[in-house]
Structures are given as C-alpha cells and as structure tokens.
Specification:
With about 425 residues, the protein is of the alpha+beta class. It folds into 4 domains: about 90 residues; about 90 residues, PAS domain (Beta-Lactamase, 2-Layer Sandwich), CATH 3.30.450; about 70 residues, Orthogonal Bundle (Helix Hairpins); about 150 residues, Heat Shock Protein 90. Helices cover about 55% and strands about 20% of the residues. A 5-stranded antiparallel sheet has the order 2-1-5-4-3, with helices on both faces. Strands 7-9-10-12-11 form a 5-stranded mixed sheet, covered by helices on one side. It has a 3-stranded antiparallel sheet with strand order 6-8-13. Bound molecules: adenosine-5'-diphosphate.
Length: about 425
Amino acid sequence: MISALTRFLFIVCLAFIAAFITLANLGDKWAIGIGILILSIPLVYSYINLARLRKYVLNDSVEKMPLPSGFWEEVFFRLQRLVRNLKQKIRTIEQQHDHFIEAFQASPNGIVMLDEGDHIEWCNSIAERFFGLSFKRDVMQRINFLIRRPEFIQYLQKRNFDDPLLLERMGPDSSLSLMLQAFPFGRNRHLVLIQDVTDLQKADAMRRDFVANVSHEMRTPITVLMGFLETVQSLDLKKEQQDQYFEMMMSQAQRMKSLVEDLLMLANLEANSLPATNATVKMETLMALLKNDAQALSQGKHALNFNTNSSMNLLGDEREVLSAFGNLVSNAIRYTPDIGSINIAWNVNADGQGEFSVTDTGPGIAAEHLPRLTERFYRIDRSRSRDTGGTGLGLAIVKHIANRHQAQLVIESTPGRGSKFTLRFPKERVSA
Ligand code: ADP
C-alpha cells in the first residue's frame, strides 16, 4: 500500500515538475497538456492491466496470466494465489466427496439419502437393485411414490424409526428379505440403510423347522413308551406279555438313542469348520468292520458283496469316515427288500481319486427327490424309514462328512431298479 501511494505521489510530483518546466519554456497550454499526459500514464497502465485481467477472468485462466510489473504485479499475484488456493480446496472437497460416494457404493448394504420431504437425494447401486430404482431417473422423487409397499409407507408416516422394518418378497425376482431402518441426520434428513437378510431369514426358518422336527421325532417314541409303561403298570400281565412290552419299550428307547446320537454327531460336525484331519484310515480294517456291521444288520437276508481294487488307504478322520460309510451301507440294507443284493466297493479310479460306493437293488429313488435327500429329516417313505430305525439324519451326516473331506457325494438311482451312492475323495486324500 505504501509503495503504491509513493508511486502515485512520485507521478504527481513528476507531472507538476514537468508542467512547471513546460510553463516556463512553452507557455501554460503546453504545461497543462504535459501535466495531463503524465498524470494519465497510470490510468492507461491500469486500464491495460484491467483489460488483460478481464480477458483471463473470462477464460477462467487467471492462474496463467503473466504478471505485469509495478503496482498491478502484487494485485495479480495475490489474485492468482487466491484462485489457486480456492481451486485446490474445491479439488480436495471433490475428492473427499468422491471417496464418500465410493465408500457408500462399496457398502454391501443399500443406502438412500432422503431430504426433509422424503425425496431421494442420493442412493447407491445396491439400493437401486433392491427397489428397482434408478438414481438418474428417480432423483428428487418422493420415496413413497417409488416403494409402494403399505408397511413401508406406514413406517415413513409414523416417523418412529427406533425399530427396523422387515420387507419380504422384495428385489428383482421377489426373492429377497430386506431389513430397512431410517436414521435421522442433519436438518430433518434421513439416511435409510437396507440390509439383505434373506440368508438370515432362511437360516432362522431352518432352525425353527429343525426344532419342530426334533420335537416331533422325540415326541412319538416318548408317547409310545409312556403308553407301554402305563399298560405294564396298570394291567396284571403274564411274564411273556411283560417281556414283549419291555422289548417294544427297548426298541422305542433305542430309536430315541439313535436320534440323539445322530443329532450330536451333526452338531459336532457343524461346530467344526476346519477340514477333517489327515490320519491314515486303513481301508482293509474299515471294510472288515463294515462287513461285520452289515451282516449283523442284514441277518442273512441280502446278498452282500464287498469288493476292493486297491490297497490304497484314505487320509481322514476314521470315526467320521466309518460313520459316513456305515450310514450308506445301513441305508442300502434297510431300504432293499429281502433277497436283494448290495455291492460295497472301494476303488481308486484312473485319476487317482478314491471312490467308496454302495450299490443296491432296492426300490430306487425318483429324480425329484435326489436334490433334497441330504436335507435334515427329508424322507421319501416316512414309515419305512421309521420302521427300520431311520432318523432322517443319515444322509445329512454323510454330506457333512464328505464336505469336511473335500469329497463329493454322487447319488444315481433308477426307480424300481436300485440306487448307487458314491463318495469320491480327491487324490490328495488317498495314500499308499
Ligand atoms: P433315514 O434315516 O430316513 O434313512 P437318511 O438321511 O439316511 O434318513 O435318508 C433319507 C431318505 O433317503 C430316506 O428316508 C430314504 O427315503 C431315502 N434313501 C436313502 N438311502 C436309500 C436307498 N439306498 N434306497 C432308497 N432310498 C433311500
């Protein structure tokens, strides 16, 4: 400021001195002219610089403007610095904004931002997919015009967002369950978070079904057992009759025991997420054990064939492998009518994979049941399963054990002709 004033005073003095000298030599008209000429120098200089500034401002390129010398140099320099700083700040804010948007987009949850009137200010692509929205098309539309579910409209109207809202049959193919909750922020705005809880809902429904199934399975033998106990208690029975009742009670107690054992086995398998151990399971010993159990169960009613083309062993958990193989053999025996034949084989195929298979000449299984056979308590013939001591959990256990050994359970069956259950182990689980 001081330097600008000094310059101005210098020019004024210069104009006076020049005018005074001219007055003395050339007369007063020349003196006024020379004075005005000298005084107009800063005006012309300022005008030229203002015109340049205007040009650069209009082109939005103030930062590129060459700096003039003198009084305007400082003004231009500071202006350029101000513009540069402001642009830098805007860039930083834009970057932060982009990061927020990217973070919201990366969220596995749907996010919708609503203004005071519940108009959509922004939503991420997950929310677009959940509700069939399009941000470009629907921006600033009222959300209740786009999501027309009555329970959602009520939720918005109530303005009480303490609890989440569950919306079922949502999404492009109406297969999603969505949990939605609005959170107030800023001035009467709302952030709506939407979570896909389809899997949780399914797991919850499965848990409820499971508890109902277990209760049902337990209630039947308990009721029968209590009936027998009352009979034995209240009637004066002969020794043989009493023995007959005790035998029937024993079979019901056995049924409950099998169910509890299978439930415990399943619970243990489900609790253990690690792959099965790599201990050597000697197949020769295992096949001998299976043979003993199979003969005891079949009681000579079936033709049992045990084949093995390999002396290779299996790497895994012996208890689990025995349980899986035992379940397949026991199913074949229980479902194959008397005089049928059952083939039990352990082979190593050309790719080095270990294959344990059980082939029977039983009733076979219709194709529509095959995908569901490994579900807990899924049975085709309920009474046959119960009559033969089945719990409905055998194949679910086999499937779990197969997974823990990276094995594949393959079921092939022709109704009326028989079934073949194969457990195919990867070659890494086969050892000499
Ligand atoms: P269960 O204890 O009832 O045998 P599983 O889980 O072992 O339960 O088997 C599920 C269902 O699959 C059985 O109820 C039965 O209907 C069918 N199944 C299993 N193995 C055979 C087989 N070898 N032949 C025919 N049906 C079978």
